[in-house]
Fold this sequence. Notes:
Blueprint: H1 15-20, H2 25-34, H3 40-45, E1 85-93, H4 98-116, E2 150-156, H5 157-161, E3 205-211, H6 214-227, E4 232-243, H7 272-278, H8 283-293, E5 304-313, H9 315-318, H10 323-330, H11 367-371, E6 382-383, E7 386-392, E8 398-408, H12 411-414, H13 416-425, E9 432-442
Antiparallel strand pairs: 1-3, 1-4, 2-3, 2-9, 4-7, 5-8, 5-9, 6-8, 7-8
This protein binds ligand L6N33NVT and fe (ii) ion (FE2).
Residues 367, 371 line the site of fe (ii) ion (FE2).
Amino acid sequence: MTTDDTTPSPDGAAPAEQAARGLSRRGLLGLAGGGAAALGLAATAGFAGGRAQAATSAPAAPARPGTYAFTGEHQAGIVTPAQDRMHLAAFDLTTTSREDLVELLRTWTAMAARLTQGLAAGPFGPASGPYDAPPDDTGEVLDLPPAGLTITFAFGRSLFVGTPAPDGTPGVDRFGLADRLPAALVELPRFAQDALEPQRCDGDLVVQACADDPQVAVHAIRNLSRAAFGTATLRWSQLGYGRTSSTSTTQTTPRNLFGFKDGTANLKAEDPEALAEHVWVQAADAEAGRAETGADSAWLTGGTYLVARRIRMTIETWDRTSLREQEALIGRTKGEGAPLSGGTEFSEPDLEATGRGGLPLVATDSHVRLAHPSTNGGVRMLRRGYNFTDGNDALGRLDAGLFFLAFVRDPRTHYIPMQSTLSRQDALMEYLRHTGSGLYAVPPGVPDGAEPGEAFVGQALFT
Ligand SMILES: C=CC1=C(C)c2cc3[nH]c(cc4nc(cc5[nH]c(cc1n2)c(C)c5CCC(=O)O)C(CCC(=O)O)=C4C)c(C)c3C=C
Ligand SMILES: [Fe+2]
């Protein structure tokens, strides 16, 4: 199959709805015990046998309620209709062994394939298996439905070339991967007004877990972290709620913590041509990269790049700003989300339109004008961010904002120039502080029908 993440389950209901009324893992384990078809997708991905495992010869079954396929051309969790909750974790490897790294990716792949299909992290589950050993699943989602869980893996630049020392001494290529570094996996420049906290930046490996239930997303990261014990440690993580983008035309546009609709002009899953142009890395990109740096990044074809920015919003100041000023800063109306040049939510902004005194209706320093493709050489991105609220600071201000996530084909053309412009000219910057940052290469999906036990995410990087 191709990863058509938007494919609804057989009864045609959206996964979120199905999850809401869906089967619990207990039910799925029962199904798994009773019928191989119930595990068709895990079986096609080829995972080790176990009590709750299907026969690998079983034909692929349609997705079960509340689940998205784990295997496919692209990883799930990118064009998948954005779920309501997210837990993203960045890890640093504590090993320098390439074999250990491959073993971790194999283990994570098998575990993610099980978890996304509503199964326990391991074959025994939380309440079974050897009595004198810790259970192979932590147990907190045993009675919960799969909640549309997706797990997406990505690699940081440091995986390939290590981390340079503050004095500029180059990092160390611990895994023999430097000649596979994609040309576009650059170190992000320091942008104007960046206030980055190093403990919220970078990382060798990143895992994004999204689900419609926070406990399901957190459980996934917890169990993957547990499996990484002795090989990788958690560097930083971020919880998110209330998606701030739609990634499918089937979704309504959500709102960010400024109270504005966010995601109106986003790229959508139903526009494969635009996704090919702006999101998926193409074979030609590896050829261009090889000519540029000599490195072979063909392994990334069909993948993408993930930009993560933790953006704190000074909402107390924002909340004392007039509606007129708020709308001028964004360039859209607060109620409907229509451009200030007129029309309705999905009308194209008319950046030439002027009003009283000949002034542009969409202000020259407004966010929407500066982020619009016509201001950025035609580039677009797939935004998939979340709101966050992480307590408060010593002055009693909420530490809240937008965890900006975007998937792009080449960050050098599709993110860095836009962020450069926004950081210097966007009037909204007065209310924002970028406190965390990362750029990661997202390998393509684990192919359907791969040999049992053989396939793992990012495999082509190691062959
Ligand atoms: C570098 C890219 C972007 C950052 C960082 C960013 C932060 C950010 N955005 C909002 C609120 C809105 N953004 C909207 C549109 C929009 N934003 C970006 C890029 C970044 N935003 C793009 C490419 C676009 C689309 C522009 C277009 O094609 O018209 C909107 C309008 C609604 C929408 O189209 O989504 C809002 C609202 C905040 C609050 C924020 C940082 C906290
Ligand atoms: Fe934006």
